[in-house]
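Convert to structure. Protein one:
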Amino acid sequence: MSVRLRKVMNYVTMRNVNVYGVKQGAVRAPQAADWAISQGISSMTTSEVAVLLDVPEDQVRRRLAVPKARGEWIAPARGLWMPVQPQYRGAGGPPGIEFVDGLARFLGVDYYVGWLTAAAHHGAAHHAPMVFQVAVSKVVADRKVGGVRMLFLRRDRVGRVPTVMSRTYSGDVPFSTPAVTALDVAADLDMAAGIDNAANVVIDLVGEAGLTAKQVADVAQWYPIAPVRRVGWIMDTFSEAKALEPLVRYVQASGVPPSLLHPEHGNRGRIDSVWQLRLNTEVDPDT
């Protein structure tokens, strides 16, 4: 039995008779979210809510429809209900960081928050990302939860690359480290809103999060050589990063023919001999 179900069952047992021996009613739907929060419960299954409300499971959605419309609950997956903290109820729901861990645990996937969402977490985003980007260990459908658009990409490196944890109401949320974030945006340029913005992120990770070439080299084994070369070239060309030698050695030891700076712009342009990168496009970062 889960801890949250045990709390529900304890409450159900205690509520049946009050101190005067009078039978008590179930928690009413309008009070259910506040009751869950008061008990430290950040998520409940449909069956657990049914026990709490003392109704059949097939009535839970109808009973919570009005509280959900008032912003008291979100339902990020079928069968999962999460009470919303009062400060977020007027904003269409909580930010993604507040419920992503509970959602991932319910779905049974390993994950980390990455790309532009992680960049913003590290102070390396010029603009707030429009979507909440999550790397997952198996396929998860994209969805909108309250006002948050969530984008999930399956990546084999989930569970292997290092992460940094951030404490939230629903659990500890893993974010990609600055080095992993840099390589992710360089590997998936569409997730980074293009190569210019990928360069912005890398530059800001150097300036704001202290990203070093050694940190990148230490996690480069989990990536194809092309994004490693892109990150090195961007750090060398546009940032104030020093001590690039560990990353230069890694790139030059790869034995792989030169990569394309932009994967969709064809085999043209000169080759940077240090980073073994064909400069087939112009890069124009904001900084």
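Protein two, convert as well:
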Amino acid sequence: MKARGKGEAGATVAPLPRFSGKDHYPPMKDTGLYEQILGLAAPWSVGEVAMNQEAKVIAVRLMLPPAVLGRIECLTMDMWQPYRASCRKWIDGAEEKTVLDRFHLERHLGEAVDKVRRQEHRELMAQGIELLKGAKFDWLYHPENLPPAREARFHEVRQYELKTVRAHAIKETFRHFWRYVYPANARRFFRDWYFWATHSRLAPIIDVARMFNRHLERILSFFRLGATNSIAEGLNNKIQTIKKKAYGFRNVQRFINAIYFHCGGLELYPL
């Protein structure tokens, strides 16, 4: 597969992909533009830009010929079902090669904690209690990243018997899951954590725990394949920087061209 550039001088043949990562870019207004990222072995680059979510369903087949699809060793992605279905259809053994990205999983837990906080905050405010007012991000930070100015107030609130405190404890405890080396030990930890989460009487936490349980085998693949979606996320951040530097694009195709130029793995040095 040739590097992007439609025949530019000095364009080289990109290496065969060994890893594939997927991420999407928030849509431009009224366009539905989404990026479809394919990670190459070296250098990592954008493989395809799809115009909408439906295009992603067939993007895997469009980007790579069948002979190359068989060389892919690992797929990192979130839990978006159409993309997983496409991978299962076109890539042999896709389920065994799939790793559900840990950062997306932790984001689901963070959103569940925030739902618990919002609901409890409304209940407390109805009683005239402002205990959780202005504290949204305190519960989303990891403890080591909490701003020093917020630490005293945060630790004070944690002394109360609040639903938000319990939800936060469940979220933070799950981080220990990734520290295991052997899948069997991680599975045992998850079993104990899952029992705690599903008996917490916190509906958002229970929903996320059950979702994790449904996808447990693909989550445990992390310990066998050791892959994350960090490269795709990094490319996504680079694409957002491209848009910021241009102060936005009025023409969608020019935005796509800029993505290919900066992130398409082009080799433009003279031969």
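The radius of gyration is 22 Å. The longest strand covers residues 74-77.
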